[in-house]
Specification:
Two copies of one chain form a homodimer. Chain A has eleven helices and nine strands. Chain A is an alpha/beta fold. In chain A, helix 1 (8-18) packs parallel to helix 3, helix 4 (63-83) runs parallel beside helix 5 and helix 8 (176-185) runs parallel beside helix 9 (219-228). The A-B interface holds A 95, 99-103, 106, 133-135, 137-139, 144-145, 147-148, 171-175, 197, 199-205, 215-218, 221 and B 95, 99-103, 106, 133-135, 137-139, 144-145, 147-148, 171-175, 197, 199-205, 215-218, 221. Chains A, B: Residues 14-255 form the Xylose isomerase-like TIM barrel domain. Chains A, B: This is Sugar phosphate isomerase/epimerase family protein. Chains A, B: Keywords: Isomerase.
Chain lengths: 266, 266
């Protein structure tokens, strides 16, 4: 999604050229290119698909909406299995129109996980609940903290349900380091994503995630937390950023790889 | 601030006309009208000044900036005392330019409270740390949760330092009800403020606080939490909203009072 301006073949080429060994994919571009075709393209290139983003949106009260959401999530699990990734990231969904009941919405997510977890396990896919920054709580994700995500995940086996640790969403939270340790202790860190925090936030607050190094987040500090918690998996950089999308995608990917070296692994 | 388009005399007149018994004031309009003149105007009208907003911005590293911030906060305490309110709301301040150290910034706030608390006590003023929504953490307030605010406040006597409970900033937080109880148990709820949460958020996310009843927050629920925690003080409505500021101020104040009756106290 960081370079959504690239076509799927351009993305794969650019990763190979830069020595980027894996890529997190989003459902919409995968569906556009074709799920089987994407799987073959990426497999033939020797790239790992680190995660598929994203399922979720499981807070509907209306039975028909809820059934549609569950069906779409089963499809997302199937897509993940076809792509050869073991992780499907879930964004839980916001409040249904007119509702003010955050607790009820969170319980409906738990109900849905109970249905989706076993389906995912049968296909070798783990669900990774992503807490989103509290500014998204009303319209996008009622799960705002790692603690809330783990409260949900721990109702299920770790190989069915874990969490996504994304710096952009949790960096403000002084309890997050302890929650990362909690997640690691039960093998529930299913992916680790980076984006930097820059201000001012844009209208709608969706597409202002900062390039690594441009903002206020100490990336090495968060990498150290997940490593201390036993995480050895891939690190993804996921930037929703109108300014980056307006640029040449190959250039943005090269810049992102360089920033990753400079601010994360050096 | 909800009706900043009104002059000080218009504000006082409108409160009297609507039967609103108290008003929270902001420093800038008070300074423009004159601190002594405002105090006399409000006192003669029989209105209570519920709080003065706002001191704070105590995170500077530079010694000269830090000294200036402390001096300005002493002035704010003096102004509060002159206005006859016992509560000064504090917005802590964001990260200094170039810093990524949230913990260090929070510790500098604690240092400043140690200097300001006794000064405030001598003048009969309590400091009320306001946790701001985590979307403000970088540029405005490194204190994002009631738990963090109480961790700071509890280093000092309750009659020196407590917290501001504002629905807009904490409604997403499932641990906030327990923290309100914690604050109430030691007499640290120094004020209670309301604003509703509406989306989409505007650019910069400052001036999109929703009119009571327009958004996702159950006001009665939060009122019940502070009451269960023993709070019997005033309830303030504080709306930063470009659309409301563009309207006739008397009309907005009347609407706000009606919404308060409908969504909070009925």
């Amino acid at each position: 999604m960081t370079v959504k301006q690239l076509s799927m073949p351009e993305l794969v080429d650019s990763c190979l050229e830069l020595g980027v060994p894996g890529v997190g994919l989003w459902r919409e571009p995968v569906q556009s290119y074709g799920v089987e075709a994407t799987a073959k393209l990426v497999r033939d290139a020797g790239l790992t698909v680190t995660t598929l983003c994203r399922g979720g949106f499981l807070t509907a009260i209306d039975p028909a909406e809820r059934a549609a959401a569950l069906a779409d999530n089963r499809l997302a699990i199937d897509e993940a299995a076809t792509l050869g990734t073991d992780t499907l990231v879930l964004v839980s969904g916001g409040l249904p129109t007119g509702s003010k009941d955050l607790h009820g919405a969170r319980e409906r997510i738990a109900d849905a996980l109970g249905e989706l977890g076993p389906y995912a396990e049968e296909r070798g896919v783990k669900l990774a609940i992503e807490p989103l920054h509290p500014m998204y709580v009303a319209d996008r994700c009622v799960v705002s903290t790692l603690a809330q995500a783990l409260d949900l995940a721990e109702r299920f086996p770790a190989h069915q349900v874990g969490v996504t640790v994304d710096t952009y969403h949790i960096w403000w939270d002084d309890t997050a380091p302890a929650q990362i340790a909690r997640a690691g202790a039960t093998g529930r860190i299913h992916t680790f994503q980076l984006a930097d925090w820059t201000t001012p936030l844009p209208e709608g607050v969706l597409n202002g995630r900062g390039q690594i190094g441009d903002g206020s987040i100490d990336m090495r500090e968060w990498k150290a937390y997940v490593e201390a918690a036993g995480y050895t998996g891939p690190i993804e950089v996921e930037l929703f950023n109108d300014a980056l999308w307006a640029r040449d995608g190959r250039e943005v990917l090269a810049e992102t790889a360089a920033r990753f070296v400079e601010h994360v692994i050096q």
